[in-house]
Design brief:
By secondary structure, the protein is mostly helical. The protein is built from 4 helices and no strands.
Length: 79
């Protein structure tokens, strides 16, 4: 998971574009947007994170706080 790649997605694309990219990657297809990542798994991780952050930001949360919340959830899931 690379924070600059996630930030780039959040800044450049709408929630709808990110959701379409998630669906494409899940179906092993090429997304219509540029997603950084060494493989499809990392690309999907970046898109998941960007979607979570976008949704949090729509509720009034700033980027850094939403990113911290996402990384907290990831850490909890692997603990």
């Amino acid at each position: 998971m690379k924070i600059p790649a996630i930030k780039s997605l959040v800044e450049q694309y709408s929630l709808e574009q990110l959701q379409a990219a998630e669906e494409a990657l899940a179906n092993e297809a090429q997304p219509a947007i540029a997603v950084e990542g060494e493989d499809e798994g990392e690309q999907l991780t970046h898109v998941f994170a960007a979607i979570f952050i976008k949704q949090e930001m729509q509720g009034g949360t700033d980027f850094k706080t939403a990113l911290r919340e996402y990384t907290r959830k990831v850490r909890e899931s692997i603990s």
